[in-house]
Amino acid sequence: MGRVLDFYYDLVSPYSYLAYRETVRVCEKNGAELALHPVLLGAVHKLSGNHAPIETPAKGRYQMRDIRRWAGRFGLAMDFPRPFPFRTVTTMRAAVYCESVGKLRGFTDEGFRLYWEEGGYPEGLKGDEAGPVSEICRRIGLDAEEVLAAASSDRVKEGLKERTGAAVERGVFGTPTFFVGDEMFWGNDRLLFVEEALRRP
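RESULT FIELD:
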């Protein structure tokens, strides 16, 4: 295996969804290792002083059209969540736990698929995440009750908090963010530059 591509993401992020499978393809094509880094996007915004695009109405309207353009470009099925954004605090804590049992890749695969292609996302910021998290767990062969219990533990809560803080310290201010070594790239539209970085000697 060659270089490592660090991928920082939250399942609530539409641009992370757009980037994910392309990132997998780029790594496979270039013999790179994909390192997944789940974070909590809302906390990233708060800690970095950034704001979600949807907080600016004109930018939010543009973003909806832009996301659909990219989905068409990448040939991705997409069922845009309504309402949006939706809650992913428990989901991303579950992702942290899944990493500890070697299931993060599967959790991420099925999470993006369920939330962005199949309409299985939580219903808004007050939505219950137990249902969708349980479905993801069923698909990857994990006990949902065990995962949800772990996601509510202090250890896993602190784990996600620490990961998110470390991401911001590294320079992350939104998702998706990529690193090849110390070089940072933000946004699904930077994958061309990511691939160039992976190919450098």
